[in-house]
From TrEMBL:
General function of this protein: Catalyzes the transfer of endogenously produced octanoic acid from octanoyl-acyl-carrier-protein onto the lipoyl domains of lipoate-dependent enzymes. Lipoyl-ACP can also act as a substrate although octanoyl-ACP is likely to be the physiological substrate.
Name of the featured protein: Octanoyltransferase
Keyword Transcription regulation set for record: no
Active site (catalytic residues): 191
Source organism (scientific name): Mangrovimonas spongiae
Transmembrane segment boundaries: none
PANTHER family, sorted: OCTANOYLTRANSFERASE
Catalytic reaction(s) noted: octanoyl-[ACP] + L-lysyl-[protein] = N(6)-octanoyl-L-lysyl-[protein] + holo-[ACP] + H(+)
Name of the top EC class for this enzyme: transferase
Family affiliation: Belongs to the LipB family.
Gene this protein is translated from: lipB
Primary location group: cytoplasm
Residue ranges occupied by any BPL/LPL catalytic domain in the UniProt entry: 43-231
Site feature: Lowers pKa of active site Cys: 157
Amino acid sequence: MNKQIELQELGRKDYKQTWDYQESLFKSILDLKIRNRREALNLKTPNYFLFVEHPHVYTLGKSGDMSNLLIDEKQLAEKGATFYKVNRGGDITYHGPGQIVGYPILDLDNFFTDIHKYLRFLEEVIILTLAEYGLKAERSKGETGVWLDVGTPFARKICAMGVRASRWVTMHGFALNVNADLGYFDNMIPCGIRGKAVTSLNVELGQKEVNVNEVKEKLKTHFKTLFEAEFVLKK
């Protein structure tokens, strides 16, 4: 089992370009797994973790409902945003500046073969990170992502999640609002869940801006611990 994860910092990158890149990494792992099986080889499969920030974009998952996007193509263009239907689970999600987006492209055969556990671990990475800022983040039964004040009229989502997996290889991941422009969430019904608010770390802390690199370091620390993994920087 290979518990090394190649960490790639992509900076700000177009959603479709990043999606295509994810697909290429995802396919390369799948192809190697198939080759291992066919040729009775035991070649190590790689793992990747991409950190990225996207320009304004709305994405709709496989089971999503188009009616959850509340603006048309003309209005999207006016807001400088794009829209894509994607092959992850979940409904509609927004990505944009001020978010930390993490895409773990892992061969779970290197860790554990349990998608439910994988999703719970991703949530736990976020929950533990937010705890370091004094926030009590939680899961909300039947609703994806990570939330604050679950079970109250003030419940609000701070991190969205959606993944795809095939032959235990994962792609897509999480989007944590750190310094996000929350106005963009008004143009959709987040994850198809009506009547629930969205928030951002800087809003919760009453700060103009939170240090994104500091948050990333905390995310990496908790990810490494939970997955018993080691990050290596792309050369």
